[in-house]
Amino acid sequence: MGKFKIKFETIRFPLIILLITVFLRGLSNTILSQAVVNLIPSNFTWVLFLSQIAKQFSGLVIQYLPFLTIIKILSKKHNSERVVLMFIVSYFLFLTITMIIGRTNMPMIVYDDLFGLNVRLSSDTFNNASILRLPYRLGFLGAIIVGYVADLSYRLTRTRTKYGFIPYIDKDVLSLLTTLFFTLIAGVATAFIWPYFIEFIFKVFTWISNDITNPISTFVYGFIDRIFSILDLSNINRQTFWYTSQGGSWMNDLGENYVGDISIWTQQLKTGITNTGFGRFITPYYIINLFALPGFILGIYSTFTSKKQRRSYLSLAIIVIMFAFISDISLPIEIFLIVMAPMLYFFHLFIVSSLFALLQGLNLFLGFAFEGTVISASLGGGIDLLSYFQIASLRGTIISLIIIGLITAVIYYLATIFYYRYLSLGLINKFEIETLVEEVLEVVGGLENIEIIDSSPFRIDVELSRPQLFNYERLESSNISRVIETKTSYALYYGTASTTIRKEILLRKKMLLP
Length: 514
Description:
Number of strands: 8
C-alpha cells in the first residue's frame, strides 16, 4: 500500500499535465466543431489558429507522455540525471531494434513514428527492393520496459566502493553499458513476441466485427478500449473500428461506400440520416464524461470530513466537472484510480464495458462527427450533445442517454463513498487496519493527544493537544508518504486508507468516553 502512495506522489505532476492537455484537446475540438466554428466572426480567425495550436500541442504531449512520465519517475526515485540520460539513450536503442528487426507485415496502425524514427532498408539484395520500417507501437509498455531496465541496471551498479570494477570504467559508464546490454535483449525479445500479441488482438477484433450488433461484442470492445487507453495503445482499436470496414460499411444513394463507425456517422449526419446503428463505439462516452465521472468526483469530494477542506476543494471539483463537460477526461481519472483505488478502477472498467453492451442492446446510438487523427479526438463532449439535441430524430436518444446517465452518476457516487469507507484497505483486512491505527497513534503521541481528526481520500488531518509529543522518529519507519505540519495540526498522507483509519480512531475514542 505504501508503494501506491509513493507512486502517486511521483506521477502527480504528469497527471496534472495530462489533465491540462486533455482539456486543451477538448476545448480546441469544441471550437473547431461545426456547431461552434460557424459562429466565430471572420475578424476572430486568430481563435481558430490558437485552437489548431492547442489541438496539435495537446496531441503531441499525450503521445509522448509515457516517455515523459518514466523520466519523472526515474528522476524522483534516484535523484540523478544520469539514470534519466541512460533511459533516454536506451529508449532510442529499444525503438531502433523493433524498427530494424521487427516484422513488417502487420497493419500499419501497430507501428509508430515516435521521434520521427523510420528507415528504408533493402528487402531483396538482387532487385534492390526496399521497405519502410517503423518502430512498433508499444505505448506505455515500451517505456515501462526500458524504464525498468534502466532502474535495475542503475541499482545493480551502485556499490559502496568509489570506483567501478575496471579502473578506467566508473560506475556511471558501467551502468550505461549494462542498461544498453539488457535493452538489447529486451528489444530483440519484444521484436519477436509483440507480433503474436497483435495477431491475437486482431483475431478478437475480427470476432467483434463478425457480430458487431451483439451486446457481448460491444462489451468486449469497451473492455479493450479502456485497457488500451491506459496503455496508450487505443490508436490500434479506435483506428480499426472508427475508420475501417471492421467498424461497419455503408453506401449512399450515389454509390459511394464509406467504412468505419465515425466515418459513416459523419457522412450520414451531413445527409440528415440518423438512427441507423452507427456511433455505437462512441455513445457510452457521453454517459462516462457527462455523468459517471462527475458522479465519481462528487463521491470523492463527499469523503472530505473537514468543512475547511471542503471549501478549499469545492472550486477544484467544479473545475474538473466543467472539464468533463468539454473534454474526455477519462484517462487522467483512470490513472488516478489505478494508483489510488485499484478496486474502484476495476468497478469502473466493468461499468464502462457494460454501458457499451447496454446501449447496443437498447439500440441507443449517438456518434461523434470528427475528421482528424485518433489521438486528437475528444469523445463525449457536452457541446456535441447539445448540438445534436437540435436534430429532432435524435432527441429521444439523447433523453434516454440522460436518464441512463443520471442513474450511472448515482451508482458512481455511492460506489465511491462505499469504497473509501469500507474497501479502501482491500477485502476488509482487520489486522492491517489495526496495524495502521496503532502506527498513527504512535506517531501522534497517543489516542488522548488527538483533539480533532479529519480525513480525505489522500490524508488524515489531526489537531493535537500537545504537539510536542509528535513522534518524528517513528515517522521514518511508517507508511506515511508525506507530512505537512502547522502550529497545532499535522496532515499525514496515507492515501485511500485515510478514511478507514479515521473511522477506527473515532470508534476507539468513543469507547473511551464514560
